[in-house]
Amino acid sequence: MQTFNIIKEINKPEGFRANSVIGKFDLSIANYKEHFKGNIDFPEKWQIGLIVGNSGTGKTTIAKNVFGDDYFEGFDYISKNIMDDMPKNCSVDEICKTFNSVGFSSPPSWLKPYHVLSNGEKMRVDLARCILENKKRIVFDEFTSVLDRTVARIGSFAISKAIRRTDKQMIAVTCHHDVEEWLQPDWVFNTDEMVFFCQKKMKDQKLISKYSKLKDSGIYLGNIII
Asked: How far is CA 191 from CA 55, 56, 59, 156, 194, in A?
């Protein structure tokens, strides 16, 4: 179990314009603190986790505090094609296979520089590079945040399958609750309510509930009661 108790102090804004707004709208603003407290009770075996909640609920703060060493800060892309930006110890076949696994399956786009790619392609390239890098765990913030939700759905399905083919772990951090359905994480931490739940336990509870309803209706575990 990972317990966190984070206090983040926010300073009163300074400057002529900021103080003008404070005076104009009669705002009472002073130094204040944000407090994020909770528990993440990891299941024994997991590969995909999800931290989800509305803006300002502490997702990034929690992700950086709990998983600081694994938090993805972005890569430098300096080559004229993204193939050459991948780790030097990876073969061409390995890179191509990983691109395909995350749903980035356009060989002509593999020969383009990173900055000309679409937002969806950039996210997939970043994930592919994270998989190819020698890291056990990946914490990916703003997951699908800038994507059309149809593109986000397709990308989430592909990325979920790609991660589960490896021995790596990924934690997606996002404000989009729809990702849970598409990514099918093993656990979820909801920062709106600061609650954690494990998908396996939820599925088991739903199964128990289903059998309870069958029993109440006279049908239980394949037996017919007359």
From this structure: 10, 9, 6, 20, 4
Residue with the bigger pLDDT between 211 and 26: it is 26
Q: Are strands 219-220 and 169-174 parallel, antiparallel or unpaired?
A: unpaired
Q: What is d(CA 7, CA 29) in angstroms, rounded to the nearest whole number?
A: 18
Residue 216: is it exposed, middle or buried by C-beta count within 10 angstroms (0-12/13-18/19+)? exposed
Q: What length does the chain have?
A: 226
The alpha-helical segments, DSSP class H, found in 165-218 are 179-183, 199-216
Tell me which residue of 14, 15, 13, 12 sits closest to 30, measured CA to CA.
12
pLDDT at 166 over 60: yes
Q: Global pTM?
A: 0.78
The reported pLDDT for the residue numbered 216 is 53
A 10 A CB-CB count for 218 gives 10
pLDDT of residue 223: 36
Spell 113-137 as b/e; 16+ CB within 10 A means b.
ebeebeebbbbbbbbbbbbbeeeee
